[in-house]
């Protein structure tokens, strides 16, 4: 994705030479994008005439934890039980059932 394609609120890192630092888009104008470095809070305005405006970027995943209520947890448990049973019935490798168990443990805590 190109830098100028980012929207307000996108968290990203630059690809290439200046990779590693994490930024968030805080404002966007037709000819500029304002970004904030997440580590330092430093704000920078990147104008469309600068080379950085066309750099490649990678969006960051939002690593916020998921929370399920009681009903959702029960539904997911039933789905995983069915998946485990089907995996066993079909003779799929044990690694599939191990992955299902690991997911079950993540959901149930």
Structure keywords:
109 residues; alpha+beta; five-stranded antiparallel beta sheet; 2 helices; 5 strands; 24% strand; elongated
Question: How are the SSEs placed, and which strands pair?
Answer:
Blueprint: E1 11-14, E2 22-29, E3 32-37, E4 43-47, E5 57-59, H1 70-89, H2 94-108
Antiparallel strand pairs: 1-2, 1-5, 2-3, 3-4
- The structure class reads alpha+beta
Strand order of the largest sheet: 4-3-2-1-5
**Number of extended strands:** 5
- Share in helix: 25-40%
Shape: elongated
What characterizes the major β-sheet?
A: 5 strands, antiparallel
Mean pLDDT: 88
Write a short abstract of this structure.
With 109 residues, the chain is of the alpha+beta class.
């Amino acid at each position: 994705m190109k830098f100028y394609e980012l929207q307000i609120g996108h968290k990203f890192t630059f690809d290439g030479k200046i990779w590693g630092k994490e930024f968030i888009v805080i404002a966007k104008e037709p000819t500029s994008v304002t970004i904030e470095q997440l580590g330092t809070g430093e704000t920078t305005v990147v104008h469309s005439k600068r080379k950085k405006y066309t750099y490649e970027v990678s969006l960051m995943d939002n690593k916020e934890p998921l929370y399920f209520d009681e009903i959702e947890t029960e539904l997911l448990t039933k789905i995983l039980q069915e998946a485990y049973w089907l995996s066993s019935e079909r003779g799929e490798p044990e690694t599939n059932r191990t992955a299902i168990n690991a997911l079950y443990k993540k959901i149930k805590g």
